[in-house]
Amino acid sequence: EEQLVQSAAELKKPGESLRISCQGSGYTFTNFWITWVRQMPGKGLEWVGRIDPSDSYTNYNPSFQGHVSISVDKSISTAYLQWSSLKASDTAMYYCARHYSASSGWFDPWGQGTLVTVSS
Amino acid sequence: EIVMTQSPVTLSVSPGERVTLSCRASQSVSSSLAWYQQKPGQAPRLLIFHASTRATGIPPRFSGSGSGTEFTLTISSLQSEDFAVYFCQQYANWPPRYTFGQGTKLEIK
Question: Which of A27, A32, A50, A106 to probe the B interface (max B CBs under 10 A)?
């Protein structure tokens, strides 16, 4: 079964750093881009950015660029979303998702989500 | 940025009814449109891509249509498990700037 498994929920303080993870299994990890999507409490879906695991090439939503960083460790089939200085407004559920095929723009499957709570 | 607008925001329907959800793009996205279903506490699930192609395992009661700026998702006969929030998503940009609609919530009448 092709699946993405995300890391557990996090509770952090403003200004702290954080890295959450997304591990793929059941398929060749380097053949498919991974995308990250934010869902703030009770809100819709926002595309954060994506990475090509084969060469770590990234594209970011300009609204998130400079505030988050996406990376990958091919050796363990894992993608990461990272913040160096969290804000309260980063509180949200974050999903990773695989692009359906090598260069498609739609996403399947999705990870189960990682809830990030930033509060003093 | 391409803005996706869904209507209605909320729809109250009875099981067995036929429903049509709308999604409008602020500029043409050709057929680069996907639909997702999200149930409470769950991740989104892909239903439709290329505006009208059902994803693997999606029942035939779900169908998508449209191109350019106007799209619809139709559920031919609502089942209890279909009450959820539905999002459309465009993937027409290069470099990518994927955007989602704000969602339509299907409620039980």
Answer: A106
Asked if A86 contacts A17 with a C-beta cutoff of 8 angstroms, the reply is: yes
B96 touches chain A (CB under 8 A): yes
Write the residue in A97, A106, A108 that is nearest to B91 by C-beta: A106
Range with lowest mean pLDDT among A75-79, A88-92, B45-49, B95-99: B95-99
Q: Which residues from chain A sit within 8 angstroms of residue B92, using beta carbons?
A: 105
How far is the C-alpha of A108 from the C-alpha of B67, rounded, in Å? 22
Q: How many whole angstroms separate alpha carbon B49 and alpha carbon A100? A: 10
- The minimum CA-CA distance between A15 and chain B, rounded to whole Å, is 28
Kindly state the average pLDDT of the residues B32-58: 97
Tell me if chain B has a CB within 8 Å of the CB of A65. no
Interatomic CA distance for residues A63 and B1, integer angstroms: 11
High-pLDDT (> 70) share of chain A, %: 99
Amino acid at B107: E
How far is Cα B77 from Cα A61, in angstroms, rounded to an integer?
Answer: 37
Residue type, A75: S
Residue A103 has pLDDT above 90, yes or no: no
Residue B48: pLDDT band with limits 50, 70, 90: very high
∠ Cα A32 B4 B49 (to 5°): 40
| Structure tokens that stand for A57 in this block | 């090439």
